[in-house]
Amino acid sequence: MFEDLIVKNTKMSGREFYFRSFTWGLPVNVGGALIAAVLLSAGVEPHRFGRCIQFDIGKNWGGGSLGVFMFTCRNASKRLKEHEHGHGLQNCYYGPFMPLLVNVPSSLRFWYRKAVQRLVPEKKLPPYDSIWFEAEATRIGKEYIENMENEFRNGITSDEVKKIEEDEICDYPVLRTASRVLLGALAAVLAAETIAFKKNKK
Q1: Average pLDDT, the chain
Q2: What pTM was computed for the model?
Q3: Which of 54, 127, 125 lies closest to 88 in space, CA to CA?
Q4: Are 95 and 25 a contacting pair, CB within 8 Å?
Q5: Cβ–Cβ under 8 Å, residues 32 and 99
Q6: Among 93, 125, 130, 132, which one has the highest count of C-beta atoms within 10 angstroms of its own C-beta?
């Protein structure tokens, strides 16, 4: 049913992934970076999952992603994380069209399903991957992580593979510093705009 989905190549190198993410896919990553900056400033430690930076927030709510930034519940399954990584890959292909094609429809559909499950629990909803962009994210995310794991296994020892698969906490002092600078700059801009608005009002 989904054999004609757009994204077929899931063997993108790390260099290509980041290059596409921060050029063609930059708009979505700006939003992800802002959320990541707030979380980093609040002391939330990021993890590495595949090529993405993952943050654990809350429990049992699912997950979301904006470019290379993944935001998932603390008990997220590997399948969920692969799915969110798949959205990161989609951003590399769809770029500035990602919000219109995937992000907004996916968010609206997610909250619609949550509302239906709460208000009409007896109603049977179609499978989560019954729509093309979710099915594609699941497929390419799983394939990409499997390709990475196979490459690791062929090139390094089993102990190193185990360490990678444990999804260890990343130490990102540069990210943390950059997040504070970004938030500081944003606060300065908002303060300047507020002052200018008050002056114009007078």
Answers
A1: 79
A2: 0.75
A3: 54
A4: yes
A5: no
A6: 93
